[in-house]
Amino acid sequence: MKKTLVLCTILFSIFAFSQEKSGAKQFWKNLQQQCGKSFEGQVTEGTDNDAFRNKKLVMHVRNCDKNTIRIPFFVADDKSRTWVLTYKNDRIELKHDHRHEDGSEDKITQYGGTTTNSGSSTLQFFPADQKTCDLLPNSAANVWWITLDETSFTYNLRRIGSDRLFTVKFDLTKTVPTPSAPWGWKD
């Protein structure tokens, strides 16, 4: 009886500990460790005529609040894109904030999705949400995902039911100089 009680206590402790550290929470904590740093990346999947190929790609984990992380994504001199991640109720939301050079919002902005489960510490999936479907009907089948480990951050897009796949991989082992503010931001 004592062995069973001890075993039950150990299993409960392990279960309780694992509940405190959900995949989303661990992912969030790991991403926050990159705050303030900038990294160069490269397209690893995508069409040959992709507008991002052969251009300098830089992500800057620029702003980290308790529940929001903003990551500007620069394509050469184009500073129009920011990935906005929001943590709420053990889920993570990804939005794409697109701006014009004067800082005003692009007409195609704030699209993305929210994870449907807590995911893992290294992988989060974001299926297109209703706002995205309304804004961009062809994107209803979009799924974005981000992978994160000690050496790399990848941003991915797949349009389900098509050959469309885009992946850009950033090397987290080498920081690069911090770029100036993205469009619509101030230093």
CATH class: Mainly Beta
Q: Which structural class do you get from the secondary structure elements?
A: alpha+beta
**In this structure, how is the largest beta sheet organized?**
11 strands, antiparallel
Number of domains: 1
Order of helices and strands: HHEEEEEEEEHEEE
Question: Strand portion, in percent?
Answer: 35-45%
Amino-to-carboxy terminus distance? 64 Å
CATH architecture: Beta Barrel
What level of helicity do the residues show? 10-25%
**What is the CATH topology descriptor?**
Lipocalin
Radius of gyration: 19 Å
- Average of pLDDT: 90
Regions with pLDDT < 50 over 5+ consecutive residues?
A: 4-8
Can you tell me about this structure?
The chain is of the alpha+beta class and 187 residues long. It has one domain: Lipocalin (Beta Barrel). The chain is 19% helix and 41% strand. It contains three helices and eleven strands. Strands 1, 2, 3, 4, 5, 6, 7, 8, 9, 10 and 11 form an eleven-stranded antiparallel beta sheet that branches. The chain is globular and about 40 Å long. It starts with a helix and ends in a 12-residue tail after the last strand. Residues 1-18 form the signal peptide. This is Secreted protein. Keywords: Signal.
What is the topological layout?
Layout: H1 2-20, H2 23-32, E1 38-45, E2 57-60, E3 63-64, E4 68-75, E5 78-88, E6 91-98, E7 111-114, E8 123-127, H3 130-135, E9 142-148, E10 152-159, E11 165-175
Antiparallel strand pairs: 1-2, 1-11, 2-4, 3-4, 4-5, 5-6, 6-7, 8-9, 9-10, 10-11
